[in-house]
Design brief:
111 residues, 3 helices, mainly alpha, 0% strand
Length: 111
Amino acid sequence: MSTAEKKRVPFRWVAVGIAVVALLLAGVVSYYASANPDGLEYVAGKTGFLDSASEHGAADGPLADYGTKGVDDERLSGGLAGVIGTVVVLVLAGGLALVVRRRSAASSDEA
């Protein structure tokens, strides 16, 4: 079977597959994420400037500190925050892709 004869998978199914895998990873992997500090926080603690850190502007936000405000179970809170963040990124990336695709289609129609 040559390359031209192979059945092509529609882009929509590829996009759905990517979204499903991303959501599964965000929910499942972040559910098991370590509670230990990340590398930057570890180095800041070792070098002695961790205490000089101040809260950022979004510290009171609904998804601050890799968790979901109002969810008491720490693991569930982290998994939910991962899923919400992934959905936001996928929606933004999909919207950007549609805008670029339409703009490129419009410019090729003018040529």
